[in-house]
Amino acid sequence: MRMEVLPARLPVEDEQAILRLYALYCHYFNHGEARKWVELFAPDGSFTRLNPSATAPGQIANPAGSTTGHAALMEMALGRREMFRGLVRHQQTDIVLNPGPGPDRAEGISYILLTDWRDGPGKIRAVGDCFATFIRASGDWRFQSIELSTLPLG
Question: What is the pTM assigned to this prediction?
Answer without folding.
Answer: 0.86
